[in-house]
């Protein structure tokens, strides 16, 4: 597997910020995920010396970079955040996992200018949007790692996959071709995250209930939110998709709907195809004029020592030692029988029902209390 060095960071000089988005401004809460994605891209477009990743909460953005730049933001940056209705919520301590998470999202954004689009957790060429029938394509998983010394490593893995786009005949039933409007639900996966949902209706033209007045507006939305450059021609259909756990449907162009997620398949020319795809991917990434947290992005072959150390770390699985019990350490079932017998007598004594005398005091059913003597010598200990 190929391995490349992207940059060498000084981890002790890194800083992070947690940004909070005002979701109540301009009714943003109705499309929180889209707003979060759009603002992340806007920040990366304005400042190329930082890395950004969306937070788990749709109202949060994580930003990392050099501590000198991050922890003391300039007045220009503060004014930019105010214009976007974003405020600084807290300062964060940066670790390797946070760098990988932010760099991964930033990498997806940088590659969009080279027509590599995010598909799930991988990237694929723009040709994906123009496929009309099932075909073999390739995808690249940009695996990232950051060592304790701050070396950023990229290990791209290329796979040949079968892509099955959604076709309109899949909505037909026993009565013939489906008509516009509600249809029998069909499971699909939609780009870019390959979310799973169900098609519940389709239209030949942009429906009236769509928030967009034209296909041109829809193209701008997909470009600003997901980085996708949709084809100039209108799609054959628009599909209403309902995701599991949601009540409202979302309108998608058929370009962005797949019958199933891309599935890896063996291919006899796989080596030739993947080698060519990896070469193109590395070339396009090298041509990106960006900075990685203040360090210019430079794609170079990793040294043999770095490859060996990282491979050893990834394969270093702690051994599992079975619970070895010595034969003499196992306690037989009858070990506690003689010890439990006296306790049983005591429990019988104290759990015996009592009756009340006229004065209100409890009276034992037996006139005399008999002490139970435990013969300590009779209790055997097992080592």
From TrEMBL:
Residues 21-261 form the DUF4708 domain. The lineage of its organism: Eukaryota, Metazoa, Ecdysozoa, Nematoda, Chromadorea. This is DUF4708 domain-containing protein. Pfam families: DUF4708. Residues 373-383 have a biased composition (Basic and acidic residues). It comes from the Eukaryota. Residues 350-383 are annotated as: Disordered. Residues 363-372 have a biased composition (Acidic residues).
């Amino acid at each position: 597997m190929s391995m490349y060095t992207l940059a060498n960071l000084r981890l002790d000089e890194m800083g992070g910020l947690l940004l909070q988005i005002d979701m109540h401004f301009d009714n943003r809460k109705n499309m929180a995920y889209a707003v979060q994605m759009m603002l992340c891209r806007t920040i990366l477009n304005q400042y190329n010396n930082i890395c950004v990743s969306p937070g788990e909460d749709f109202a949060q953005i994580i930003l990392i970079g050099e501590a000198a730049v991050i922890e003391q933001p300039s007045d220009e940056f503060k004014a930019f955040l105010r214009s976007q209705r974003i405020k600084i919520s807290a300062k964060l301590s940066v670790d390797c996992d946070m760098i990988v998470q932010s760099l991964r999202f930033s990498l997806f954004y940088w590659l969009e200018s080279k027509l590599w689009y995010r598909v799930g957790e991988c990237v694929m060429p723009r040709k994906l949007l123009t496929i009309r029938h099932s075909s073999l394509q390739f995808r690249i998983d940009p695996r990232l790692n950051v060592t304790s010394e701050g070396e950023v490593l990229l290990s791209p893995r290329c796979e040949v996959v079968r892509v099955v786009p959604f076709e309109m005949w899949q909505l037909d039933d026993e009565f013939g071709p489906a008509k516009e409007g509600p249809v029998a639900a069909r499971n699909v996966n939609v780009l870019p995250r390959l979310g799973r949902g169900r098609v519940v209706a389709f239209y030949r033209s942009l429906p009236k209930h769509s928030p967009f007045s034209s296909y041109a507006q829809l193209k701008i939305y997909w470009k600003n939110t997901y980085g996708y450059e949709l084809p100039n021609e209108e799609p054959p259909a628009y599909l209403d998709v309902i995701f599991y756990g949601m009540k409202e449907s979302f309108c998608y162009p058929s370009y962005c709907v797949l019958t199933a997620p891309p599935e890896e398949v063996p291919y006899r020319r796989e080596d030739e195809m993947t080698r060519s795809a990896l070469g193109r991917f590395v070339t396009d990434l090298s041509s990106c004029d960006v900075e990685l947290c203040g360090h210019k992005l430079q794609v170079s072959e990793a040294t043999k020592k770095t490859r060996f150390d990282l491979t050893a770390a990834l394969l270093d699985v702690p051994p599992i030692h079975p619970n070895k019990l010595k034969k003499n350490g196992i306690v037989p079932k009858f070990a506690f029988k003689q010890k439990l017998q006296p306790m049983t007598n005591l429990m019988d004594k104290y759990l015996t029902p009592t009756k009340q005398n006229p004065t209100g005091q409890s009276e034992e059913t037996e006139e005399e209390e008999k002490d139970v003597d435990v013969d300590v010598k009779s209790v055997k200990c097992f080592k």
